[in-house]
Fold this sequence. Notes:
Helices cover about 20% and strands about 20% of the residues. The protein is an alpha+beta fold.
Amino acid sequence: MLPRGDLSMAELFGLTDPVRRVGEAKMALGGDPYTPPSRWGLSSIGIFHPRLSVKTWLGWRPDDRLVPITNFFNRTPTPVDQGWSVKKTQVTDFRGHSLTYDSHNGTDFAIPAATVVTAPAPGIVRRISDEFHRGGLKVVIDHGFGQITTCNHLGRALVGYGDHVVRGQPIALSAYSGIDAIVSFPWSVPHVHFNSWVNGVPVDPFAADDEVSLWRVPNDPKPFRSGEDQEPEEIEPSSWDEDAIDEVIAGCIDPRCREKLRSINDIDRRAVDTIFMKNYFPTRFEVDAPIYKTQFQRRPLLDLPFSAADYDGVRFL
């Protein structure tokens, strides 16, 4: 029996709606008129870490209290029109190494199921959604200053849409929801896939030599500890360019997706949902326009999205 706290097996793997999951799995593997099929091959074996995976599935936490990172953001991704690729054909992480795969646009933190996931910075919850073929259950937070983060492969959300969250606040319990786990269990490590978007574009929170890290402790993220930064933190509200948002939506070639985005009246929800759909289903959009009125620079805003009761930092696998 896998240790999973009080998560059900359906929550653990994201199988709460089996009928819908079948359709999403078919789309992920075979594509649809607007989305190329996923690609994998022998090089995909390189993303598996069997020894780490099995013991993490069994609830193991490292004695050094450092979260293993199993994949970084790929700085040299394959073209999106070729489809989502879990191959390792052209990969470069922020260090110039190869701890990533072709289409990987986030950071993978290896943790046991039912681990508490926390807000990496103060913000507003702008989306909670569950796409089996694109990372399972996700919580999306707008932190202002042009920064949005998502935590994927969750088992249960502990917050709701529109909630204002403070730094270090529990937002979810981890799992490994999504088709990834079903296809690769038990050799793929249970993890939280963490996305960072600046100005609506996926970016690496880790910094190369000439960049600013998005982590408050540069390239060495730490969890928030109570007693730090007790003064309320200001959030720069997102200022959206509604004309640009409408232009991007009008350029969506999937009519169902286009009309769903058009039907959202709340501008914050429409903006973030547009960013979300454009990043998770990029081949459905033909227009690329900056939807913020102001273009922001990278700034150190984020902490490790886990509790200081569980972890002290990270280590690179």
